[in-house]
Amino acid sequence: MHMKICVMGLGYIGLPTALLFATHGADVVGVDVKQSVVDYLNHGNLPFREPGLEELHREAKERFCAKTEPEAADVFLIAVPTPLDPATKVSNLSYVKKAADMIAPHLAGGNLVILESTVPPGTSERVVIPRLEKSGVAVGDFLYAHCPERAIPGRTLQEMAGNSRIIGGYDRDSTDRATSIYQTFVRGQIYQTDARTAEFVKLMENTCRDVNIALANEFAQLAEECGINVWEAITLANKHPRVTVLNPGPGVGGHCIAVDPWFLTENSTRCRMVSTAREVNDSMPNYVLHVTRSLLSGIRNPTISIFGVAYKGNIGDTRESPAFKFIQLAENEGYAIRCHDPHVAEFPHPLMDARDATAGSDCIVILTDHDCFRTIEPAGLRMRTKFVIDARNILDHEKWTEQGFAVRVLGDGSSVQPAPLDEIAPPASLYPAGAARSIASPLPPSISLLSPNGREDFL
Ligand code: SAJ
Known about the structure:
5-stranded parallel β-sheet; 8-stranded mixed β-sheet; 15% strand; alpha/beta; 459 residues
């Protein structure tokens, strides 16, 4: 059956979704309030980078066009941002409201409206549906579903098609219709529920990840106090069949994990863990700066080189990146800052190549786990003092040490010397420092050593 879809919002989620529908048989009008985004797309360009998106945009050419206003369609899909108000930690639903208001004049009986944007529980019933009903068409006569996205930036297209999805409809018809529409390109399992549960589930997913990362970050600080390497400890703990601790780091960025937990708690008087986890993760730039400060204490007019301002590895996205807070705190303390990030095109601070970013520098701080940082040749850098803080545990530390660098890894336990626990550490000849072994049974026994980073996945 021929279908026309109007996608409201052509950002990181809306655009790939629109193009996937267009390459799977639908006619798609993509709507964005920014004229520049619309012009970009209609001239064959993309407003941001994402693997595979360029090819998909070309493939969708016949069935996709961008506009600044919606028009009559069979399906309306809302994928606009829901930012967090930084002062109140309350969601800003103004874009969602505006999208619903823009759809209302074009809404007809039998249409389906899908909300993909992440929202606090109850938003569909309390905010979106009433605005759509201003069209004069009642919900039930038009269909409505909340279908939160689950795709991770950097792998958006694979995950949009391959991941399972939750579809929560206003009623049975809405859920079934939305399911059949997503089935045009989703290969993953589709699970059906109601709209409010779908809203809640989306927030649970990102909150669960945030809490897990906060735990890893707290473990890193505790391990430091105990004089042990948290990376080795986490790798070993994760050998337990029911334990999966994530990685510590300089903080949690991105538009989702750092934001969504607040949507869950904004109307609650009971939550403790969720907000505590947010606080732990938000304090990690302070902790990394604390480590930096302790290294640079005797140096006059110190300069810090930041490697990685993107919020995570191998992408150019800096939204909510922990680098912002780290830079602001460091500058407030009088450190000079030089930034290097080959993935990022635009950043408020000037971005330089690795050599310029290290000219006269006293310390490199690795804030992002870009793969390209793993192969940097330390010999080519122009440091004044050779300190490096690896807040992601991605460098080849032996190589850097050989080049005269003093290396600190976040949570490596090296600030505690000598630790009382050293007395009960196994003899060095049996277990080399920082390397644990495993003996698998049944026979034949095999012994495996973790890498010097304490991680099995280290290349
Ligand atoms: N991070 C750590 N340690 C880890 C993993 C991540 O410090 O072990 C940091 C990252 O460096 C980054 C932040 O957390 O700063 C968030 O990155 P991420 O890769 O965990 O997640 P996002 O924000 O890119 O995407 C998440 C995903 N949600 C989950 O995995 C539950 C994605 O599936 C969602 O679609 C997306 O949020 C979204 O749009 O909601």
